[in-house]
Specification:
With 202 residues, this protein is mainly beta. It has one helix and 15 strands. A hairpin with a 2-residue loop joins strand 11 and strand 12. The chain starts with 6 loop residues before the first helix and ends with a strand. 44% of the residues are buried.
């Protein structure tokens, strides 16, 4: 099944923060700067690698790319990740970001951004796409190929609150999240996204 989602949205919208800004919880549940490989990171879709102090995702033709952390469940807390836009001169820069509420390959959320300054939240529910927050411009984003932005998500009860470079982006209601995982998300194929400085606090 093809899982490409937002290509049309990105076309329509297309006509370096530090991790210290985010993750306000007292106790660190997970911290990974990818200086060494943690085998708990697992490819879900696409090509995933940890090399040179970065994690990278690249989609396969017709599919999204996603990796999930298999070492812990994240039912609530405060998480952040640095996302670096792909280099290159493609007209459509693609989308990438923070996946959360992952129960399996057909059920998850993803907060996404792109190099043209667009952000949003998507959801795959029972293999069907929803858009809790449709793609829209965000002045908080650093734009352009190679730019790095810090994405943050706090989960508490049925509320998921998102931030870009420590500025509020959107809040959505989610089903009670229990026994879920977090990870990284990117599309379309052919673009190499970089991720760094993952941190989850309680």
């Amino acid at each position: 099944m093809s899982l490409k989602f937002l290509s049309g949205v990105v076309v329509a919208l297309a006509i370096a923060a530090t991790p210290a800004l985010a993750c306000k919880g007292r106790n660190v549940v997970l911290a990974d700067d990818f200086s060494k490989e943690d085998p708990a990171w697992s490819r879900v879709f696409g090509e995933f690698a940890i090399t040179g102090g970065k994690a990278t995702l690249k989609g396969e033709p017709g599919f999204i790319a996603m990796a999930a952390y298999e070492g812990e469940f994240f039912d609530a807390g405060d998480g952040c990740i640095d996302v670096t836009f792909p280099d290159g001169g493609r007209q459509i820069p693609g989308i990438g970001g923070f996946a959360f509420g992952i129960t399996d390959k057909d059920n998850f959320y993803a907060m996404f951004v792109n190099a043209d300054g667009v952000a949003g939240i998507l959801r795959l529910s029972k293999g069907k796409w929803l858009q809790p927050v449709p793609a829209r411009k965000s002045d908080a984003l650093k734009t352009g190929a190679g730019a790095t932005n810090t994405l943050r998500i706090t989960l508490k009860g049925t509320a998921a609150t998102t931030y870009i470079n420590d500025k509020p982006f959107a809040q959505i209601n989610v089903p009670t999240i229990a026994g879920t995982k977090m990870g990284m998300y990117a599309e379309p194929e052919g673009l190499v996204w970089q991720f760094d400085n993952v941190k989850i606090t309680d």
